[in-house]
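ingest -> validate -> predict -> emit
validate: passed (alphabet ok, no gaps, 279 aa)
predict: started
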Amino acid sequence: MKKILYIMGFALIAGLLVTSCTKEEDENEFHGIDSKGAVVIITNVVNGFFDLANPAASEIAFDVDTKGETVSSILVTKSINGGAEVDHATISAPSTVNVTFNDALSGTGVSAGDLEPGDAAVLNFYLTTSSGTYKGGSLNVDMSCVSDLAGVFEYSTIPWCDGSVTETGMTEWVSAGAGVYDVVNPDDPENPDAADFAYGAYFPCYGATATLPGGDLQVLDICGKIAPIGVSRWGEVYWFNGVSVDGTKLTIDWENDYGESGVTTLTRTDGKDWPPLTN
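emit:
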C-alpha cells in the first residue's frame, strides 16, 4: 500500500472561466423622474458567450429597452477587451438584437486567431434623447467554448510499475461547471475515497486495497485543451504528457510529481465520439 508522505504540497491555482454576459454599471445612471437622460435595460440574453471552438455558428441575442427620457435612437459600439470602440449599429427600443461572432469582430482589427478564452467583446450603448446623448450601459460577452465531456467510460491503464499489465475498470466524469469535471467511481459517486484519478494504476503497483489519490483533483477543459487541476490527498500535482483521440477512445499519458505515471485509454459507453482534444 502506498505510504503517506509528509511533504510540502504544491498549490495549483486554476482560474476558471465564467462563460456568461455581464452588465456594467452605467456611468450616467438614471435616478428619477426629474433626471435627464436614460439607461439601457438588457434582458433575455441567449447563449451568453461567443464559442471559440465554433465561431462560424456562434451568435448571441438579447432584448433592449430603456428607462428615463424618451429615446430617439441607440448607437451600439463594440470593442475587444475594452480597446478602441467601433460603431456597430444604430437601433431603437424596444427591440431584439442579434450579434454573430463575425459581427462582433468586424472593423475592430481583431481576428478569431487573436483571441483566447477570457477575452471579451464589449458592447456599449449610447442613448440619444431630447436633452442629449448618454452612455446608457455596457454588455461584456466572454470568449469561451462549449464543453461537453461528461459521461461513464471504460478505462484501461498501463501503470508505471509494470508495462506488461493492463488494469481495466469503469470511471465517470461529472460536470462541476465551467468546463471542470470531477472524476468519480460510477458505482459510488458520492464517495471521494472511491474516486480514482489514477484509473486503476495503483492496484497492480500497491495492491488491491491501495488508497486512491483522492484530494481535489479534477479535469479542466478549455476549448479542447484538457489538463488536471488540484492536488491529491498527499499534495501531488498531476499533468498530462500527451492526449490523443480515436473515435470513442481518449488516450491520456499522465504523470505526477511523485514519479507515478500511466497511459490510460477512456472508451465512451454512450456511442459518441470524443471531440478533438489536446493537452
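The radius of gyration is 25 Å.
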